[in-house]
Amino acid sequence: MGSQMHEKVIIIGSGPAGYTAAIYNARANLNPLVLGGTQSGGQLMVTSDVENYPGFPEGVQGPELMERFRKQAEKFGARVLDIDVTAVDFTVRPIVVRAGEQMFTADSIIIATGANAKWIGLESELKLRGRGVSACATCDAFFFKGKNVFVVGGGDTAMEEATFLTKFANSVTVVHRRDSLRASKIMQSKAMSNPKISFIWNSEVSDVIGNDHVSALEIRNVVDGTKKLVPADGLFIAIGHEPNTILFRGHLETDSRGYIIVTDRTKTNIEGVFAAGDVKDARYRQAVTAAGSGCEAALDLEKYLEEHHHEPVIENEISSAAR
């Protein structure tokens, strides 16, 4: 038999959105429980240098930044369990959340399970991730000043990434499986008219070469199967993201790509259930926007509890002014 515990607030997910929500809810004396997953910390756990998070002029390692978020949440009274949620039931009150044999009930929930970049699926790509292989140009383009980089993909995201990279890189080569792009006409013409961007059609990256950093790519022609080796300093994968919402499909409204649909910024279609960060944001996908969104969800949740559970959310005026 699994044990059962009742919570005012359960936060599912432990990236910048989940931990920021936990900091705010903890400071409001809500004693939130964070079910962070066995791989806690989100996408920043596979990011080496984070140079664009405000307050860190020297840059910070992704895992260290997440450890600081966690300590701050715990300092104010949040409890973090590194366990995976396996089922939810939003049709009952209190809401039911299961993690294997354990069962929790909650008055309110924040979903901050994030999204993952889709990868090609090569062993060499995994080995060199963070060492020349990236899925985020806005995060990592700065490291490729004057270098020759490649982008995999043919949609709007790939064209945006390629165009952004030209501000830093010497050359950007787009590798696409088809002979035409899926991107919108305006993004296509923008990329195609950029003198720094060139295209390799009907092709895929079949291997990434390098010891401690990317040095070359093996590119395979999908029509005739021929392979060629090209020198490269970096590889950006831009074939989309997958929001971590499988658990909630059928329970919450999601769009065609699986992102949770919210109204009024963080409210889902189920009362008392809020969403924050990349799980509902296909557009920005930055640590700082996820953190901001976690704050919004926490404040919306506090208001919901005040209105529906008749308990004033207590936070002394000093800390309220400080936040």
Task: Describe the protein's topology.
Blueprint: E1 4-12, H1 16-27, E2 33-35, E3 49-50, E4 60-61, H2 62-75, E5 79-81, E6 87-89, E7 95-99, E8 102-111, E9 115-117, H3 123-127, E10 133-134, H4 137-140, E11 148-152, H5 156-165, E12 171-175, H6 185-192, E13 197-200, E14 203-209, E15 216-221, E16 227-231, E17 234-237, E18 241-243, E19 273-275, H7 287-309, H8 317-322
Parallel strand pairs: 1-2, 1-8, 2-5, 8-19, 10-17, 11-12, 11-17, 12-13
Antiparallel strand pairs: 3-4, 6-7, 7-8, 9-18, 14-15, 15-16
Helix pairs in contact: 1-2, 1-7, 5-6
Describe it.
With 323 residues, the protein is an alpha/beta fold. The protein has eight helices and 19 strands. It has helices at residues 16-27, 62-75, 123-127, 137-140, 156-165, 185-192, 287-309, 317-322, and strands spanning 4-12, 33-35, 49-50, 60-61, 79-81, 87-89, 95-99, 102-111, 115-117, 133-134, 148-152, 171-175, 197-200, 203-209, 216-221, 227-231, 234-237, 241-243, 273-275. Strands 1, 2, 5, 6, 7, 8 and 19 form a seven-stranded mixed sheet that branches. A five-stranded parallel sheet has the order 10-17-11-12-13, covered by helices on one side. A hairpin with a 5-residue loop joins strand 15 (216-221) and strand 16. Helix 1 (16-27) runs parallel beside helix 2 (62-75). The longest helix has 23 residues, at 287-309.
